[in-house]
């Protein structure tokens, strides 16, 4: 199975098929409203506005699996994002990205691009310490480690890159721009 064979639940409970994104560059990101990385909504929205007319889509999937940082209802999360960050891209239903109830799409994404580390710097070191407390073997499994992990999918449905939340947003944009 490939990227276009999956679907995810929308806020209204309907299913959004990845076939709807065929021929587009897609950024898939698990988000949270109460996270230190939540300000990444701003550069994600900027990318959306800059590249949307050129075939770029954002698949925003709120997730409450990391320190309970997305505690609200789907509607509350949506209202927060539109009011605080003026987001215009669609948000999906809050869902799990790891474990028994994970979205099938996330199982696929993690199989395509596993965890390769948090990079360097203070945020990377801090996040690795937090994650290690939850999963001592975190370096050796493909699970999503925290909010705002991003996958970039090209126009052919190939998963070309995985960015951990500690990655610079300029690097994410550079990747997206190279595929537009």
Automatic annotation (TrEMBL):
The active site is at 35. Pfam families: GSHPx. GO terms for biological process: cellular response to oxidative stress. Keywords: Oxidoreductase, Peroxidase. GO terms for molecular function: peroxidase activity. Residues 1-180 form the Thioredoxin domain. Belongs to the glutathione peroxidase family. This is Glutathione peroxidase. It comes from Mogibacterium diversum.
């Amino acid at each position: 199975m490939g990227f276009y064979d999956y679907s995810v639940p929308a806020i209204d409970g309907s299913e959004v098929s990845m076939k709807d994104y065929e021929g587009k560059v897609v950024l898939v990101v698990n988000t949270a409203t109460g996270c230190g990385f939540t300000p990444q909504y701003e550069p994600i929205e900027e990318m959306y506005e800059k590249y949307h007319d050129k075939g770029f889509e954002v698949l925003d999937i709120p997730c409450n699996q990391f320190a309970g940082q997305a505690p609200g209802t789907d509607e509350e999360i949506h209202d927060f994002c539109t009011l605080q960050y003026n987001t215009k891209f669609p948000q999906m239903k809050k869902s799990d990205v790891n474990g028994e109830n994970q979205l099938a799409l996330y199982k696929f994404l993690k199989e395509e691009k596993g965890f390769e580390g948090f990079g360097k710097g203070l945020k990377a070191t801090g996040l690795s310490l937090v994650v290690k407390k939850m999963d001592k073997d975190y370096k050796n499994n493909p699970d999503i480690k925290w909010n705002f992990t991003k996958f970039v999918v090209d126009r052919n449905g190939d998963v070309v890159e995985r960015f951990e939340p500690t990655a610079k947003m300029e690097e994410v944009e550079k990747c997206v721009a190279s595929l537009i």
